[in-house]
């Protein structure tokens, strides 16, 4: 006997129930008891193998219990064990689907008989279930494969799987019962008929050949066939597989479907999701329902099964880990070349998939993809498609690893920014406050230099915070109006002599706050570097300057400080940056700044100033590069924000000879 048998005994007489349970327990059965049918129904969610019930019970009798059980558990063994029995009750019980019917006797031998009846009923049910599972998993294996499978007996097709029927343009039911010569071109019918007869009579055990088939619509198709003699229900039959010699349509479909599956792989955010989608593609796209992905574990130096199709589990059971040099998947991983195990290797301990044949493909250095086939035919197309799937899986795993590393980098950047904000800005604010008090008590010309140094430190801290936080990878974007964001950034520019124009800019996918910061820094670069007015020369050179506007300080969570001069100049920017002050190039403006849309979906910011010298254009985006007293981080922040979006920044000359900075959203 196999696994322990758990029996639910139901009887409204506790004494009778206790005796029955004791004797059944002696016979090796695991018994649970209930004194009412209603309580027994509450236990059916447990793992019960058989119910033994009395007939005459209050509220719900044994037959009513049987009918209720059969609604949800049609094959659960149910034995009516009653002291009040007659032919009418027995007939009604049989009609209701009782498994067995047994009269209570006065002796104890009846419990041995009852135990035997229980064991027989349970073992029969288990055998039937296992047979059904076996038939189901092999039917799935046969029906989902991309090769045609057939059984022929007495010159009639007894079975045709969906693939075989599809090759010839039929439904499977249309072919069953027909002569196999229905799908054979007239020129090859005699040869195919002789081959089938020889195999069915046993003259030839196995044969491989090609013939010209004909579809339902009359189109010829070249077929490669493999088959051999089998015994079916005690009589000889022929079973085999066939496929199109030039299965171009299948390959084209598979390549298109693999392309779609690749997009699904690339959208996965964990290694587990990647490999689960990959084995699903092996089944749904390549047509191999038996598929296993193993990933290499550096800690144990083993290949561990991390994704297995349901059919592979049904057919093969739990898949083991493999130590180095223990199995064929290692050979594929180490060589980087596909390994095919044919029928001669089936069943060996070193064969990962003990079917007729198996294919092993490396997923770069991540692990291996193993697929099994019910026949011994892996052609070049199968191998190439499996390699494409493996390569796409490797790329998706690399992407997930890169995302994880970027996330760790973002966490470190945020930690750095928090330390800078708290541990540097608080003492800086204290120093400014003390400086103001000292100046009130004892004015000194040295205080101006100290104030300048503190402002310089404040600018450096602000830009370092921006560089850290703006460099975080953009996780979420939204569709925004490029013109709206650019206009909002221009409102922060504190230069009433500059003018701003833009084209019809359309929309873009971006983080709006970071995009506005990018525009703000580009505009300051254009105004402060390109302007020749005295007012603009009073400020730091744009190449050296980062944003100090109140809006950008809010985005960077900066702490307050007591620099009144910085606050007043930045605060005036909003007021003086009104879009109504757009001037034409001939109205005496110091510089005109234009935003244009690029053909690739990106944008450019150009000015009509003196431009950037050629020998400096490669350096202006470097952190810390400065030609004056600025922080040298303004344009470095621009590049950081762009790269966080996956964009690329380039410097060229505008049509007027000024600077032109292009942001390309596609490489």
From TrEMBL:
Keyword Coiled coil belongs to the record: yes
SUPFAM superfamilies the record matches: ATPase domain of HSP90 chaperone/DNA topoisomerase II/histidine kinase, CheY-like, GAF domain-like, Homodimeric domain of signal transducing histidine kinase, PYP-like sensor domain (PAS domain)
Pfam families linked: GAF_2 (PF13185), HATPase_c (PF02518), HisKA (PF00512), PAS (PF00989), Response_reg (PF00072)
Domain of life the protein comes from: Archaea
Domain PAS, first and last residues per copy: 134-203
Record field: compositional bias (Polar residues): 579-592
Recorded coiled-coil stretches: 115-144
Positions of modified residues (4-aspartylphosphate): 54
Reactions catalysed: ATP + protein L-histidine = ADP + protein N-phospho-L-histidine
GO BP annotations listed: regulation of DNA-templated transcription
UniProt KW keywords: Coiled coil, Kinase, Phosphoprotein, Transferase, Two-component regulatory system
InterPro entries: CheY-like_superfamily (IPR011006), GAF (IPR003018), GAF-like_dom_sf (IPR029016), HATPase_C_sf (IPR036890), HATPase_dom (IPR003594), His_kinase_dom (IPR005467), HisK_dim/P_dom (IPR003661), HisK_dim/P_sf (IPR036097)
Ranges of biased composition (kind: Basic and acidic residues): 535-544
Record-listed E.C. numbers: 2.7.13.3
Histidine kinase domain: residues covered: 419-667
Enzyme class per UniProt: transferase
PROSITE patterns registered for this protein in UniProt: HIS_KIN (PS50109), PAS (PS50112), RESPONSE_REGULATORY (PS50110)
Gene Ontology MF terms: phosphorelay sensor kinase activity
Keyword check for Transferase: yes
Region (Disordered): 528-625
Response regulatory domain: residues covered: 6-119
Protein name, UniProt field: histidine kinase
Organism in which the protein naturally occurs: Halococcus saccharolyticus DSM 5350
Top-level taxonomy: Archaea, Methanobacteriati, Methanobacteriota, Stenosarchaea group, Halobacteria
């Amino acid at each position: 006997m196999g696994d322990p048998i758990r029996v639910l005994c139901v009887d409204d007489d506790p004494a009778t129930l206790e005796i029955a349970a004791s004797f059944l327990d002696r016979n090796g059965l695991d018994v649970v008891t209930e004194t009412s049918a209603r309580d027994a129904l509450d236990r059916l969610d447990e793992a019960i193998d058989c119910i033994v019930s009395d007939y005459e019970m209050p509220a719900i009798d044994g037959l009513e219990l049987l009918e209720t059980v059969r609604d949800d558990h049609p094959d659960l063994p149910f034995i009516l064990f009653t002291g009040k029995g007659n032919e009418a009750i027995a007939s009604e019980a049989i009609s209701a689907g009782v498994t067995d019917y047994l009269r209570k006797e006065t002796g104890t031998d009846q419990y041995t008989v009852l135990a035997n009846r229980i064991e027989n009923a349970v073992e029969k049910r288990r055998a039937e279930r296992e047979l059904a599972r076996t038939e189901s998993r092999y039917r799935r294996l046969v029906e989902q494969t991309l090769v045609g499978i057939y059984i022929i007996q007495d010159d009639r097709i007894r079975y045709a799987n969906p693939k075989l029927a599809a090759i010839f343009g039929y439904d499977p039911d249309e072919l069953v019962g027909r002569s196999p010569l229905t799908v054979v071109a007239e020129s090859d019918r005699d040869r195919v008929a002789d081959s089938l007869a020889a195999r069915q009579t046993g003259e030839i055990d196995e044969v491989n050949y090609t013939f010209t088939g004909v579809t339902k619509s009359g189109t010829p198709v070249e077929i490669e066939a493999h088959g051999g003699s089998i015994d079916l229900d005690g009589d000889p039959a022929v079973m085999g597989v066939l496929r199109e010699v030039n299965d171009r349509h299948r390959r084209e479909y598979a390549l298109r479907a693999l392309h779609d599956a690749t997009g699904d792989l690339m959208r996965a955010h964990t290694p587990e999701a990647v490999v689960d989608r990959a084995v699903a593609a092996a089944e749904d796209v390549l047509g191999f329902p038996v598929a296993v992905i193993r990933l290499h574990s550096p800690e144990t130096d083993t290949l561990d099964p991390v994704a297995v199709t349901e059919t592979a589990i049904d057919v093969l059971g739990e898949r083991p880990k493999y130590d180095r040099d223990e199995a064929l998947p290692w050979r594929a991983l180490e060589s980087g070349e596909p390994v095919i195990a044919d029928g001669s290797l089936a069943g060996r301990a070193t064969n990962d998939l003990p079917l007729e044949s198996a294919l092993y493909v490396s997923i770069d250095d991540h692990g291996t993809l193993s697929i099994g086939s019910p026949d011994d035919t892996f052609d070049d197309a199968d191998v190439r498609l499996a390699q494409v799937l493996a390569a796409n899986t490797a790329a998706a795993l690399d992407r997930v690893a890169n995302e994880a590393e970027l996330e760790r980098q973002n966490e470190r950047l945020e930690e750095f920014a928090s330390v800078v904000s708290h541990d540097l800005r608080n003492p800086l604010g204290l120093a400014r406050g003390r400086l103001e008090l000292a100046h009130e008590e004892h004015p000194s010309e040295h205080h101006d230099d100290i104030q300048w140094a503190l402002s310089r430190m404040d600018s450096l801290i602000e830009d370092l915070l921006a560089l850290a936080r703006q460099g975080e990878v953009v996780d979420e974007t939204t569709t925004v109006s490029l013109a709206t964001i650019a206009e909002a950034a221009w409102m922060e520019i504190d230069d009433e002599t500059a003018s701003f124009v833009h084209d019809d800019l359309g929309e873009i996918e971006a983080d709006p706050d970071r995009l506005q910061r990018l525009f703000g820094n580009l505009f300051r670069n254009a105004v402060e570097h390109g302007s020749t007015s005295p007012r603009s020369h009073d400020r730091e050179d744009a190449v050296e300057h980062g944003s100090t506007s109140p809006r950008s300080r809010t985005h960077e969570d900066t702490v307050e400080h007591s620099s009144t001069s910085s606050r007043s100049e930045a605060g005036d920017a909003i007021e003086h940056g009104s879009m109504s002050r757009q001037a034409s190039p001939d109205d005496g403006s110091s510089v005109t700044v234009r935003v244009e849309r690029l053909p690739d979906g990106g944008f450019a910011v150009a000015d009509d100033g003196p431009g950037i010298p050629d020998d400096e254009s490669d350096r202006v985006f470097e952190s810390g590069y400065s030609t004056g007293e600025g922080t040298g981080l303004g344009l470095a922040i621009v590049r950081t924000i762009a790269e966080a979006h996956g964009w690329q920044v380039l410097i060229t000359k505008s049509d007027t000879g000024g600077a032109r900075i292009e942001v390309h959203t596609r490489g």
